[in-house]
Amino acid sequence: MKLVDTVPFAIGMSDSIGDIDAITYAARFYASVATASRSRPPTSSAGQPSK
């Protein structure tokens, strides 16, 4: 099984960055994901609001 068959999207970079920058990016990215997931109602796997 290929990764693209199970993962709908990925985020990548064409250049490398330092460890501190990578840690900072990851912390801010996942904080944003967590904030967004709390501000929207849960959805089903079909993208419809859960009941």
SSE series? H
How would you sum up the major sheet? none
Structural class: mainly alpha
Q: What is the tally of helical segments?
A: 1
Oligomer: single chain
User: Gap between N and C termini, in Å?
Assistant: 33 Å
- Proportion in helices: 40-55%
What value does the Rg take, in angstroms?
Answer: 15 Å
The count of strands amounts to: 0
Q: Unreliable stretches, pLDDT < 50, 5 or more residues?
A: none
Mean pLDDT: 79
**Global geometry:** flat
Portion in strands: under 5%
Question: What labels describe this entry?
Answer:
51 residues; mainly alpha; 1 helix; flat
Topology:
Blueprint: H1 19-39
Notes on the protein architecture:
- The protein has about 50 residues and is mostly helical.
- It has one helix at about 20-40.
- The longest helix has 21 residues, at about 20-40.
- About 0% of the residues are buried.
- The model has no long low-confidence stretch (mean pLDDT about 80).
Please outline what is shown here.
The protein is mainly alpha-helical and 51 residues long.
